Amino acid sequence: MNDSARRESGHLMLITPERVFYAGLLGRPRQRCPGAFHVYVSVEAGLWLTTATGYESYGELAVVAPDVRHTIASDHRSAICLVIEPESVREGAFEQLAARLAGADAPFFAQRIRAAYRALQQRQHGDDISNAEFDAMCFGEALPPRSLDPRVIKSIAQIGRFCGDPVTAASCAAEAGLSSSRFLHLFKQETGISFRAFRAWKRARHLLHFANQDLNLAHLAQDIGYPDSTHFSHSIRRFYGLKPRAIFSGSRDLAIYRSEPGMPSAGLRQGRA
Prior knowledge:
- The structure is a single chain.
- By secondary structure, the chain is α+β, with helices and mostly antiparallel strands.
- Helix content is 40%, strand content 18%.
- The protein has eleven helices and ten strands.
- Strands 6-3-8-2-1-9-10 form a seven-stranded mixed sheet.
- The radius of gyration is 18 Å and the shape is globular.
């Protein structure tokens, strides 16, 4: 499918280093457990949210914390999903916003996020979008950023390169001048996430850049750091509730845009990394 047809479908995904705005198919409702904050908004009618602990809700907006197993189903074939990376937000800040999103202001926020979707449909090329701009567009305010130790920032950047040899805790510890145990403690203390869980989620998140491409999935799995196709399939299904092939099959008409603030000559760029 060509880029023009994808734009006409109305299905789009904007990917930034610490945010994702997705508007498209949800797929069959299966349990998923992503590693970031998720805000789901219905395009039409409502959404059904069920968590592994037995919590159930129905409405036009639902909020789920990282690492919470849940199922989301929509009355409409498509839905909107916002992804906020937890290490990018000051501790407790998103939880405060979530209380408002799930409260009496939910209809207002749902309308605002739908308006952001319409704006993104028109803004398919232009300036890069920072976290603050993304948050203001969707929530009316910027979420306060988390201050991280420079050694942890460097290790996060290494994980996010997805090229060369796989990034390990030992290699990051050596780069930081720390023992492995001290580095792992520092990483968890700073981000609130274990190094292993963080790396696994970022690897699965990186798949999103290629979701509308016609690729050999075994080669893609190897390229983004999975040891084999079985591990790749199990990991993706755990995070997204769908097998990799189902994600690619349902994303053929998805327009994907990448925004990388701070990069020279950058803009909203369509296509794979």
